[in-house]
Amino acid sequence: ITSVSMLCWMNILFGSSLSAVFFVYSLIQLQQVEYRIGIQ
């Protein structure tokens, strides 16, 4: 949660597309972790 909020602040402060890509990448990683937990 902390890393996601930090990425949100980075996206707001810098407004660069790069931080937005990292935000989407982190969301994908979270979905993969939840998917693996769901399997186990």
Describe this structure in words.
The two termini are 22 Å apart. Helix content is 90%, strand content 0%. The protein is an all-alpha fold. The chain has helices spanning 2-14, 17-39. Helix 1 (2-14) runs antiparallel to helix 2. The longest helix has 23 residues, at 17-39. The model has no long low-confidence stretch (mean pLDDT 79). It contains two helices and no strands. The chain has one domain (2-39).
Give a short overview:
This protein has 40 residues and is mainly α.
Into how many domains do the coordinates divide? 1
Helix and strand sequence? HH
The portion of residues assigned to helices is over 70%
Instruction: Report the principal-axis shape.
Output: elongated
Class by helix and strand content? mainly alpha
- Biggest sheet descriptor: none
Taken as a percent bin, the fraction of beta residues is: under 5%
Which stretches are low in confidence, meaning pLDDT under 50 for 5 or more residues running?
none
Distance between the termini: 22 Å
| Oligomeric assembly | single chain
Based on CA atoms alone, the radius of gyration comes out at: 12 Å
Look at the structure and give the mean pLDDT: 79
Number of strands: 0
How many alpha or pi helices? 2
Descriptors:
mainly alpha; 2 helices; 0% strand
